[in-house]
Every structure is written in structure tokens, then in C-alpha cells.
Design goal:
Layout lengths: L1 E5 L4 H4 L3 H9 L3 E5 L5 H6 L4 E2 L10 H11 L3 E5 L3 H10 L3 E4 L18 E4 L8 H6 L1 E4 L18 E5 L7 H12 L4 E5 L15 E4 L4 H4 L5 E4 L3 H9 L4 E3 L6 H11 L2 E3 L7 H10 L4 H12 L4 H12 L1
Parallel strand pairs: 1-2, 1-4, 2-3, 4-5, 5-6, 6-7, 8-9, 8-11, 9-10, 11-12, 12-13
Helix pairs in contact: 2-13, 4-5, 7-11
Length: about 325
Amino acid sequence: MRVLFAGLASEGHTFPMLPLAIAARDIGHEVHFAAGEHVHPPLHRLGLNPFRPADSFYEIYAEDLEPDLARLRPDLVVHGWGVPEVAVAARRAGIPALWHGFGRMFPSGIGFERPDGGRHLDICPPSLQDEAFLATADRIALRPVPFAEPGRFERPPAPFTHLTLGTAFGTPEVLTAAIRGLAALGGHVVVATGRVRPQELGSVPDHVTLHPWVPQAEVLPHAALVVHHGGSGTTLGALAAGVPQLVLPQGADQFANAEALVAAGAALRLLPGELSADAVTEQARKAAPCRDAARAIAAEIAAMPSPEEVARERLPEVK
């Protein structure tokens, strides 16, 4: 079977799709991946045959993909929530298609068009998923598997705190406040600075290490606490590891994710107007009791069908 994956050209939207794409490749399906060139290097290394549709760099429009659908003639299209026009192109071409989620169904008004109809590969555990989406959507459950390319990373001895604000929302001011607050606790802090250059953060204590990038799949299972922006990838990765969270939402779907985590008892949160170094210290000290709820959700995630199961059993039935 020939499967075409398509997604936004960002790690936060592409990486959640990779475990299923890899599983489909490993059982013998021919896999191609349509996305902007920003995410092509890891796709090339994984043998997923990436290409840029027409002139698309981030989003993909129906007209961008239609020539490639005619060229490749895939048996199935799997496309991310962030590229609704791919669903349009697949429908016009008469090709079966599946939406692939990146987390909890996002609220209206964050800059993305919410999916309308169709069947969804849902990587969010039901206990955290939007109730209306659970009640109305045609869903195939798919276990979220954190993906990160292997790299040389020497993590400190546990316990440590992992701090990240993702690749799109970090600012020196927010990171500096979080670093100061966590450093006051005395334990080691592993910081992924993302789009913020480490030199913008000034000097940090010896027990704080700054890295432009951290392989979260390797780090999250060993962290005692994850402090982050509320992006779906970090949220689900920390939950899968059963780690308590302190969420500092900055935009997009992060406020809704934080609210759901707090309601489930798996995290605490600080809204932008509440953020200070002292507040981070105080909330981080209070986060340990969230571990029980986080572990319960980790067990729920572990019971969801794996990418290998879905690739082997569910993708052929869609075709």
C-alpha cells in the first residue's frame, strides 16, 4: 500500500505523525511525506520520502498537492489537523483520507480551522480529550509516542527538572523568570532554550544547564517535574512518562491544554499575569502531588493501540 502523509512544516505538527509513518514503513508500506522543507532532514534520515508540494513552505493548499496526488496515486492520505486543505485535495481525487491529531482538539480562534467531519487518528487520551469531540467524532485511538532524533545528550543524575517553552513561544523574559524560580529549589535544571539564544539569558547557576535542543523522548521519563508552555507534544510526552507538570501557557492551544491538565489533577499552572520567579518556585514545590494523576493518565496512554497495531490493523481497513 502507498501511504501519503502530509503536515505543517513544524516539529510540533510533524513529529506526532512520525511514529505511525515509521510503523507503516516498517511493515512494508511505501510511505511519502508532503511538508515544507524545514522538516525534511529528519524525514530523509528516516526514509520517509519527503517532498515539498508546489510552493508550500508551511501550510499546504489543495492546489499545491493535487499534482502530487496524480503523480503518486496513493492508496491512503494521512494528514495533520493543521492542513485541512489536504482533506479537500484527497476528496477531489477520490482517495481515502484520515485526519491525524497532534493532541487535544484545539479551541476555535487560535488561527487554525477546526476539522469538520471525517475520521480521526486521535492521540489524546480520552480522559483529557474535548468532550464534544469525543461525543461526535469518528475516532481511531492511537497511542502518542514521543519522537526525537537520537543525539548526543548527557542528562544529569535524577531527580532533575526539565524546562522548555517549545520552538515558537519562548522569550528571554519568561525563560529567565522560570530559570530563576526553579534554580531556587536547588536541584538540577535542564533547559531547552528553543528559539531563545542561550546568551540572551545571561549567567545561570552551575546546577542549570542550557541546551538549544533536548531529545525529550530521552529526557522526560527521567524528570521529576516538567515545566513547559503547554504545547501538545510536551504535554503528552510528560503524561506518557507519568511526570507532574507546571504549565506556563503563552498562546495557541496552550491555555486549553493547561486547563485540562489542571482539571485532571496532573499539573499546576501559572498564567502570564501570574508569572514571576517566586511564583514558579512556589508552584514547583507544590507539584509533587500531581504525580498520582499523571501516572494514572500514563497507564491510560499505555493501554491505547500502538502505532504498529494501527498501521497493521486499521490503515488497511480505511483503504
